[in-house]
Amino acid sequence: MENIQKSFDVIVVGAGTGGTTAARFVAKKGLDVCLIDRKQKAKIGDKICGDAVGNEIFEILKINHPKNEELSCHIKGAKLYSPNLKKCITLLDPKQTGYVVNRIEFGQRLLNEALDAGVKQFLDKTMALDLLYKNGTVNGLQVKLKNGEKVNLNAKIVIDASGFYSPLRKKVKSSLIEKQVLKEDSILCYREIVKFSPKDQEVKDPEYITIILDQEKAPGGYIWYFPKNESTINIGIGTFMEYRGKVKDLYKKNVFQEYVKTRNVDILSSGGGVVPVRRPLWSCADNGFMLVGDAACQVNPLHGGGIDPSMRAGYHAANSAIHAIEIGNNSINELWDYNYKVMTSFGAEFASLDLLRIVLQTLSNDDLNFGLERDLLSGEDVLEISSTGSLNLSLVDMAVKAFKGISRPNLLLDLNFLRIKMKEISKFYKNFPHKLTQFPEWKEKIIEIYDKINKMIVNKKKSK
Ligand SMILES: Cc1cc2nc3c(=O)[nH]c(=O)nc-3n(C[C@H](O)[C@H](O)[C@H](O)COP(=O)(O)OP(=O)(O)OC[C@H]3O[C@@H](n4cnc5c(N)ncnc54)[C@H](O)[C@@H]3O)c2cc1C
Does the C-beta of 238 come closer than 6 Å to ligand 1? Predict the structure, then answer.
């Protein structure tokens, strides 16, 4: 057997963007950290992804921005198109500026920085199998090492950042953490990185990431076209999960054939993946245990961006772990603070965007064309509600929207109701309970909001 250390302050499972961030900040504090990943070290960071990340996270965490071989290109903002491509909303707020990265180089950098920060032991090609418990509290993991041997590793806290398919979430003994992510809260994706000669084709809007909403071509999701450099793009499609087995065909027909005009291409990478698109799990922690990133559904429900939130969550989880270990109490009462930080920050935004996502998925292309062209719910509205939890439309604005929506009063009413519920849920999340004891009452209120939105959708379907 390999001579490995078996007892730690913290074990982090998964060396993706969330796990490396958590490991780095715990290690920086001088605690004993073990980081494990089932991939071999050289493959860490290799993930099917759109590769876009905003620049804010690097400022918040005070870490290096992507540069040199990690960086594909700088991004000024996002362009969102209606299905008929007649309306384009350009989003230029600071949150939309950032980078398209070379994913593996980016991932390797984050891994190396975590190791340099003092991670005690990094085990690659090591699979987390199950959680270990003592007196109802997680106190370690069973893992399968690269030599095939199964061993137990102990820790005061386990941070699970093992991504969407987290095996640990499915096995956790907890009444707070959901084990399953519903199919309707997940999006199936397929994407390729396509290189062509700049002589044959120009990269469209090389400083913007482009998103096209189209319920017929990308049912339930969207088509994306992200630049990488003057001759390379990252293009893909997201759809409802029921398109499993068909998503590649949809990609070929509705994305590749439409957006790649030359046949003289190199496909540098291709593949599929699943992304959760709901608000974060009800609780991202329990005794001795925290979940980070995709494992905790901490992904922007509207566009599926999860790099930034996984890193934010990794940072918050690290701080909560450090605090719990310092005071010698790893119970959920102490780790609750992690939930508080997640829910009151990006959790509030994601809950609000989750409602928007649910409603958008029910709209037809005609509804989307109409609503977007007439600004019934504009890009600015969405950004304002989701980032501030409020939207102060003047009476004049309301009247203008009402006038523009006059030929589709039901759509206008639905969008107004949605706007109100988005504000409401964001406020609830910003007032997330400080203590676990207040949580059940809070949860009831959130369920009520979801029930109302679902009822609106059922009524809409009935009236069709
Ligand atoms: C097609 C697609 C496009 C996307 N585009 C974007 C985008 O443009 N911008 C953006 O911000 N987000 C995007 N996302 C989402 C983003 O990739 C994820 O949200 C983000 O990578 C989450 O990071 P994570 O650390 O939680 O998990 P991951 O990056 O998935 O890392 C999990 C790690 O855990 C390891 N692991 C898994 N199981 C085990 C186990 N049992 N034992 C040990 N290790 C294990 C894996 O090997 C992996 O290294 C996209 C996702 C998809 C699928």
Answer: no
